[in-house]
Design goal:
alpha+beta, three-stranded mixed sheet, 5 helices, 5 strands
Length: 154
């Protein structure tokens, strides 16, 4: 991993991704957003194997790298934009746009990603390798029945 050094000079780290479909692992959320803290060269050379959109082993490798990227970093808060997102053929598009009209926030990035994958994109959180592996590595909870959820309308 090559994490941008300046990140460690701040007192508070707030992660603010847009959730969406992803051509390879089918989901972008809080954990995948941290790939932007990795050097672009390292990201493309190490995280993305050939055929990363179709080869199950390459997709699993990408998801493992996403989880690894989250090991040294823990956001104090995750705020996910799920107001208008690409549901298919993401992130490049063109694809189907949906407008859930939601902002999802929480401190448990695995739970936030599990919620966004299941409740926003209609996926099974346990089918997303990064979410499942992050839960196995104790980065958070995948089981939303064990998380206090609250929906607020404004």
């Amino acid at each position: 991993l090559q994490v941008v050094k300046d990140l460690f000079d701040y007192d508070l780290f707030i992660n603010m991704p847009v959730t969406k479909d992803h051509a390879g692992n089918k989901f972008t959320g809080t954990m995948k957003n941290l790939m932007g803290l990795n050097s672009r060269t390292h990201n493309r050379a190490k995280f993305h194997k050939p055929n990363w959109t179709t080869d199950p082993e390459a997709i699993a490798h990408l998801d493992t790298c996403i989880v690894d990227m989250n090991l040294p970093l823990k956001p104090a808060l995750n705020i996910v934009d799920a107001t208008e997102i690409i549901r298919t053929n993401g992130p490049m598009g063109p694809g189907e746009l949906i407008k859930p009209g939601k902002i999802v926030a929480g401190v448990d990035r695995v739970a936030v990603d599990a919620y966004c994958a299941s409740s926003v994109l209609g996926l099974k959180a346990e089918d997303i390798i990064a979410i499942r592996k992050a839960a196995e590595r104790k980065l958070g909870r995948i089981d939303l029945s064990k998380v206090a959820l609250r929906e607020v309308r404004v």
